[in-house]
């Protein structure tokens, strides 16, 4: 696995990380034993960057990772998040008291005294981002975190935060069917020396060998309420992606490998974090860092899947609350 820099002053990590949200059942039933096998398989394939959050299964994802760390004792880089309060109603809290409390709880679940990267999962708009970064800077100085990141923010917020203390990473959704980061965020991260960490780089599973079937998704599956997976949008989207599948197979690539290679090709500061519930799916994309796209490949992908091809938003009206939209 090739390596990339996690921010200008951050560690070198695998070019592809592993997102661990699916361990908590967001995309269908998951069991801890299979999740542990996923972690083993990822490590064996050279992945050393793992991403989670305090709210993934209300700590379940972190607990699984912590169990694995205690058993395997691997040399890996961890990222976790806080900032979303889920009960009694969903809201955002970036106060120092809340962030400290949640970080301590995360560290306990992870069996760690320190985490390399700590994200603000969603920005609390009423609180100046400068105040939030001052809190994060204190956590860095205390050795609790190696650096901080921001999730689902705008380029303007990143610039304000970075002016207080350099930001290691921004984590926003980015894939062949979610392209907003091209309107300023990718460029701002490159300018500031901030890593851009795309989540859902495989379109929540749509860029795989078999399309996800909303009819068989569990009621708890996050995708069931996403407009892109509802009709008539989903039929249109699959028809467009069919051409990309043929393109990938003609070159001897998996669909996931080709889609991931495209993400990696957008800049050396991108470190995507696909997720999976099974080790079997991991093998479809883990070799993507070895795929070298040609100029002809880039032109053909742009023809098949131009920016904006997808019908339907990437979130519904409730899911998108807290996301900073711009442009």
From TrEMBL:
This enzyme's EC code(s): 1.1.1.-
Cellular compartments per GO CC: cytoplasm
What keywords tag this UniProt record?
Answer: Oxidoreductase
What sequence ranges are listed for the domain NADP-dependent oxidoreductase? 15-301
Q: What's the gene?
A: yhdN_25
Any Pfam family matching the protein: Aldo_ket_red
The molecule here is called General stress protein 69
Q: Which GO terms describe its molecular function?
A: oxidoreductase activity
């Amino acid at each position: 696995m090739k390596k990339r820099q996690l921010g200008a002053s951050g560690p070198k990590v695998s070019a592809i990380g592993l997102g661990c949200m699916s361990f908590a059942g967001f995309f269908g039933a998951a069991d801890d034993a299979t999740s542990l096998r996923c972690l083993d398989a990822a490590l064996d394939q050279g992945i050393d960057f793992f991403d989670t959050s305090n709210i993934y299964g209300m700590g379940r994802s972190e607990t699984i990772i912590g169990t694995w760390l205690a058993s395997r004792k691997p040399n890996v880089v961890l990222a976790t998040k806080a900032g979303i309060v889920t009960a009694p109603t969903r809201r955002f809290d970036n106060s120092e008291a809340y962030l400290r409390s949640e970080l301590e709880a995360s560290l306990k679940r992870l069996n760690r005294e320190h985490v390399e990267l700590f994200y603000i999962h969603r920005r609390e708009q009423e609180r100046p981002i400068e105040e939030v970064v001052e809190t994060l800077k204190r956590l860095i100085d205390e050795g609790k975190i190696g650096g901080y990141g921001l999730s689902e923010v705008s380029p303007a917020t990143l610039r304000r935060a970075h002016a207080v203390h350099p930001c290691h990473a921004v984590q926003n959704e980015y894939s062949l069917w979610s392209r907003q980061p091209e309107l300023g965020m990718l460029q701002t991260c490159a300018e500031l020396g901030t890593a851009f960490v795309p989540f859902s780089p495989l379109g929540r599973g749509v860029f795989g060998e078999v399309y996800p079937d909303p009819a068989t998704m569990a009621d708890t599956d996050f995708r069931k309420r996403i407009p892109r997976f509802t009709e008539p949008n989903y039929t249109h989207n699959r028809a467009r992606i069919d051409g990309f599948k043929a393109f990938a197979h003609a070159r001897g690539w998996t669909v996931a490998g080709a889609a991931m290679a495209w993400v990696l090709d957008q800049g050396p500061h991108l470190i995507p974090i696909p997720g999976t519930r099974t080790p079997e799916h991991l093998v479809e994309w883990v070799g993507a860092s070895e795929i070298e796209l040609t100029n002809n490949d880039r032109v053909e992908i742009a023809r098949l899947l131009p920016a904006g091809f997808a019908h339907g938003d990437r979130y519904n009206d409730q899911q998108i609350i807290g996301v900073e939209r711009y442009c």
